[in-house]
Amino acid sequence: xxxxxxxxxxxxxxxxxxxxxxxxxxxxxxxxxxxxxxxxxxxxxxxxxxxxxxxxxxxxxxxxxxxxxxxxxxxxxxxxxxxxxxxxxxxxxxxxxxxxxxxxxxxxxxxxxxxxxxxxxxxxxxxxxxxxxxxxxxxxxxxxxxxxxxxxxxxxxxxxxxxxxxxxxxxxxxxxxxxxxxxxxxxxxxxxxxxxxxxxxxxxxxxxxxxxxxxxxxxxxxxxxxxxxxxxxxxxxxxxxxxxxxxxxxxxxxxxxxxxxxxxxxxxxxxxxxxxxxxxxxxxxxxxxxxxxxxxxxxxxxxxxxxxxxxxxxxxxxxxxxxxxxxxxxxxxxxxxxxxxxxxxxxxxxxxxxxxxxxxxxxxxxxxxxxxxxxxxxxxx
Length: 381
Hints:
alpha+beta; 3 domains; eight-stranded mixed sheet; three-stranded antiparallel sheet; 13 strands; 18% strand; globular
């Protein structure tokens, strides 16, 4: 097998192929844009075809539910939970249920250098690090294999990730007898920004403030929870700083310019109503228009129940919420990724050409991070 995929647009980076290869012939390697792709060691490959057969993008119909049949607006009864959640605290309620079963929760966390990866949690304190948004593609490493081991050992497991990661896990686990202990939740995904640009951005901030970054928070609730505020606040603290800094340059590149997303995002097979998960978690944007009595400036979650297991799960956790069942189509106008992928910007190729040119000029400029280069203000404006 020369390659798992034919074009970059066919690979979402879920790593299901690498983690399922019986010869360990596949490694996930970053390309020039910083996105991870499977690279095959031809000396080890026996051309068994498992990698292509398990790919959720090539076989997306096999990992999707028929479509969500129930939708809820829900907010956690504890205000402290809502304040430390991206929306209404749905993830906390679901993961609390799993932890009470002495189960295991897999979610996204920062490493010491603020790279983003999936980690495993067995306690509420460990799980709390997975809360709040992290707008960078996570490195799954051996997460699927670890989940399989937990399931085989009889543990209840919750996995949360992007829709394509959820699809990758569902394909990896398949219909194995131990799959009955697995809950999969996907979080509504706008798209996946480049980990490379994320690292360059952090370097730029440390140069700008002449200090090491100590803490990061996306979508801080210093602003009220609201669609208009959702792309405003990226906050960070430095070791010497006395108060948090607010900077929105990365948001501008990601949400407005849309030039740093993974190529597969513009043709996403999972940006529709058929979800590859038991439960979809999102923000219930414009809830004040549809149901003002449940609206809350500290956050309201949208819960889409896509499977029988998803419905059973909600029955077990609904006591933690103030909630209301909603018409399944009500959320569609407010959640474009339930209808179609993000649009490919015309200047995406030009952005990456400019970025490559900046790298060449950095030796002359004497800079450590391309974000600071005067000759390419697109990276910071």
